[in-house]
Design goal:
Nucleotidyltransferase, domain 5, 4-stranded mixed sheet, globular
């Protein structure tokens, strides 16, 4: 089992637990250069809000999308978009990534901006 397969295995268990709850989930994907966040509906069929460091508006604010400060900006942005879409409470899906660094920065910024999880 390689590193990616192990991460996806961990993610599968988390997503199974979240699916039973039938709540919207905030899912995170991180690459070396960028970070992406999406709010997915409880049924799993619709994306309610999304934000990433590849967006033109965000690219002008950050020089490197692979930093904790860029992740914090995405966390704040996704929380604002979620509240605008009517979502106040979500389940955090870290997609098998460890809860530190960029993933933690995104989660903390989203909490500070009004998202509950």
């Amino acid at each position: 089992m390689n590193k990616k397969e192990a991460r996806l295995r961990r993610a599968r268990k988390t997503r199974a637990r979240i699916a039973e709850q039938k709540v919207a989930r905030l899912t995170v994907f991180r690459s070396n250069c960028h970070i992406y966040a999406q709010i997915i509906s409880g049924c799993g069929s619709r994306i309610l809000a999304a934000a990433s460091t590849t967006e033109a508006a965000v690219k002008s604010d950050v020089t490197n999308g692979g930093t904790a400060s860029a992740a914090a900006l995405i966390g704040k942005l996704i929380a604002e978009r979620a509240v605008a879409a009517g979502v106040e409470s979500v389940a955090f899906d870290r997609a098998g990534y460890m809860y530190h660094g960029r993933v933690k920065a995104l989660a903390d910024a989203a909490r500070e901006s009004g998202l509950k999880f």
